[in-house]
Records
---
Amino acid sequence: MASSSDPENMQWVYDDIDHYRFNTDIITKFLHDKWPDFDNFRVKRVGKKFRFWVPRKLTDSEQNDLFTKRLPEY
């Protein structure tokens, strides 16, 4: 029996994050590392945000972790 935290049993939702110093590859890799059994996160730039399809919205802690993966400032 699958657990309630199993992504296959969750209701997938769109989540987003500010685009600043991100690209599609960074976000896709982060999501794939978090949910390795899935690969279609539908990461897409929409205006000033990146939108992605995930088993649940990212927590504040997960968003902060993703922020640490931003491209360096020049």
Note: Residues 24-34 form the longest helix (11 residues).
---
Amino acid sequence: MDQEDRLRLLHDCQTPIRADKGTAYPCSQRDLDGYVKFYRTNKDIAYVSPNSGTNKLIIWLDINQKPDPESTAALERLGKGLKIRPWGPDLVIKAFKDLDTAFFMGTLTGNVLVRWKKVRDISNLWGFGSSHGVLWGYTSKMGHGQAQITINSTPHFKVASDPYREMWRTLLHEMCYAVTAITRRGRQRRAHRSAVTGFISDDAFTLSIGERTNIWD
């Protein structure tokens, strides 16, 4: 990817996302609006232990188990939509609901905000120093059953060798934390500080999506 394309994508991260503009992935404007501002409070979120949450996801993602009709439809849209060229950073946001439906049991939609943002300095975030490395994204707990995912646009489109693949890895990684953030008790300052041991890694999710939708072909 040349420098001109990287600058264009970096600029596009700051553009409000519209269902009828940008990357032509099927989604509704209502869903996109729901990633910017909470439109409902989900009182059905049940707190679970890390082991219980892990077991539910493992069962849900068992490749030997036939997905339900809703998940099948989501996977079909992912399989087609993720091959769209040209693409923009809005693609991962527009596909959020389908990713949630297919891989997270629909737990996140309506309860998690998601956005691109330039995060220039991480030295003041949660006490991290400059030695912490690149901050690709982070998940913030926002109260009972709610969280926000932030994807840092700068490293994705300035330093990543493969921005396309990296933005999917980052979103999936943060979606794992978001599940923890909205289903664990406590007021952790950041969802990463929750007990996430045992949850399936972002690599496993990336592999699972690759196997089910062949998006890396």
Note: Residues 126-131, 187-203 have pLDDT under 50 and may be disordered.
---
Amino acid sequence: MTKINTSLHSSRRKSRKAHFQAPSSVRRTIMSAPLSKELREKHNVRSIPIRKDDEITIVRGTNKGRSGKVTSVYRLKYVIHVERIAREKSNGQSVPLGIHPSKVQITKLKGDKDRDNILERIAKGRVQNAERRKAREEK
């Protein structure tokens, strides 16, 4: 079977290197989170890069079921910090827990002009792909 995307490497070593040395712009897209069922129906989009002030629900791990607002997106470590989800250090200090965006679900988007444009663009692409698929099946 031939490669689908020739710009990506299938070697484990090179893929890992590309992941951990990725620039911030690429990390943004890697740090995408799935939308809730309601938002998915509304926007016709499956996932979107997470950003500060989005409201999320954790779907995996020890904090499963807890929800809150994203306080920071830590691209260097590939984690997000959520309000009220922290752990106590031995000296009593509270430290936010890092959670990977793939393990959360966005329940409320912080909308602005740019974000709306992104959602529109993704939805339009999905519609076009569905039309292409349908046309191909008819042949």
Note: The helical segments are 12-20, 24-30, 37-43, 113-138.
